[in-house]
Amino acid sequence: MARAMRIEYEDAVYHVTARGNDRKKIFFTKLDHEKFLEYIKEAKKKYGILVHSYVLMSNHYHLIIETPNANLSKAMQYINGSYTTYVNTKRKRSGHLFQGRYKAIIVDIDNYLLELSRYIHLNPVRAKMVEKPEEYTYSSYKAFISNKREEALTNELLMGMIGKNSNESKREYKAFVESAIGTEIESPLKKVYGGIILGKISFIKETLTRLKAEYLQEEEIANRRALRTIYGVEEIIDMVSNHFHIKKDDITENNKPEQRKISLYLIKKHTGATNKKIGEVFGGISYSAVSKLYQRFTKELNGNRKLQRKIDGIERGMSNVKV
Question: Beta 50-56 vs 60-67: how paired, if at all?
Fold first, then answer.
C-alpha cells in the first residue's frame, strides 16, 4: 500500500487526522477524551508543538498543529502511541487502535487556516450530533468564543486573524463559523494538492521545493505523479506561446507543429497530466497518439542542439516564473 509523504520543517502548520481501525471507536468515555488531551499537553511540553484547533469525534480526530521544531512525526508518535497503550491497558485489548498511519496535510495559514478551523469545529454539526458547535464538549470551539482557557490549545494566531481585540475576535469568529451552518460550503480538504498540501499555487510551489527529489522516485509514495509537478497543462502552453510569440490556439490546433510538439514534451516532463488529459487539450487526439508523439520528439531531441537550446530557453523561463 502506498504510504503518505511527510514534509517537515520549522514552523510548518498541519491538519492531522487519524481514524479508528476498521472505523471503530477510539474514544469510549469522557475520561478517554480527557486522557487524549493530556497526551497533547505532554507533547506540547516535550516537543514544543502548538495546537490551533481540535475536535475529538467518536472514531476519529482532527487537529491543527504547528511544529516550531520540525518534529511532527515524533510528536504524533508520542500522542498516538501513548493513547493506544492507555486504551489497550484500560480495555484489556491488544493490537492497533488506529487505522494505519495518521494523515498530515501541510496548510497555507494565510489562505486556509481560518477556513480549516471552521470546518473542524463544524464536524459535530455536520454529523448531526449537535445543532450548534458550542454544544459539543470535545472541541476547542468554546475556547474561541468564550473566556474558557485550555492548556492544550494555542488560539492566538487564529484570533489575531479575525479581530483587533479579544472580545471582537470572539464575536467575529462565532459569526464566521455560524455563517456556514445549514449552507453547502465546500470542504477545504477537497482542494488538497498531491494528497499533502492545502494552499495557493505559490505556497504549493514553495513547499514542493522542500521535497528531496529522491523521495519522489520511490514507488510506494502516494500521489507521486502530482507531487512531481509544479506546473499545470495550461501554464505550460501559456509559457510556450509567450516564448515564441504565438497564440495558444496555434499550439492546440496544430497550426505550429514544432511548438505543439515542444508543448507536449514539456507537459509530459513537468506535469502529472495523463495522456488522456493531454489528448483532450490537444484537440482530442488518442492516448496512444500522445505517447507516440512524445517518444518521437524525445528521439528527435537527442543530438539536435538547436532544438535542445529552444527547450533550455523555455525551461529557464519556467524557473523564473513568479506566482
Answer: antiparallel
Cell triple for residue 303?
Answer: 543530438
Q: Using DSSP, state whether 305 is helix, strand or coil.
A: helix
For 126, residues 6+ apart whose C-beta sits below 8 A from its C-beta are none
Per the CB < 8 A criterion, the answer to whether 40 and 152 are in contact is: yes
Give yes or no for a contact between 99 and 23, defined as CB atoms under 8 angstroms apart: yes
* Sign of torsion over alpha carbons 77, 82, 88, 91: negative
| 63, 65, 70, 74: CA torsion to nearest 10 | -40
Residue 230 has pLDDT above 90, yes or no: no
User: For residue 274, which of 251, 258, 294 has the smallest C-alpha distance?
Assistant: 294
Residue type, 295: Q
State the pLDDT at residue 315.
Answer: 84
DSSP E strand stretches across the chain: 12-19, 50-56, 60-67, 103-107, 197-198
Decide: 55 and 76 in contact? Cβ < 8 Å: no
- Predicted pLDDT of residue 213: 44
Which one, of 77, 82, 83, lies nearest residue 104 by Cα?
Answer: 77
State the chain's mean pLDDT as an integer: 87
Is the Cβ–Cβ distance between 144 and 55 less than 8 Å?
no
8 within 8 A of 67, measured Cβ to Cβ: yes
Q: Tell me the whole-structure pTM to 2 decimals.
A: 0.69
137 alpha-carbon distance from chain centroid: 27
CA angle 58, 54, 137 (to 5 degrees): 55
Long-range contacts of 27-31 (CB under 8 A, 24+ apart): 27/56, 27/57, 27/58, 27/59, 27/138, 28/87, 28/91, 30/137
The closest alpha carbon to 17, from 86, 152, 119, 144, belongs to 119
CA–CA separation, 265 vs 248, rounded Å? Answer: 16
Cell of 144: 474561541
Local structure of 247: helix, strand or coil: coil
Q: In 3D, which of 157, 163, 69 has the Cα closest to residue 112? A: 157
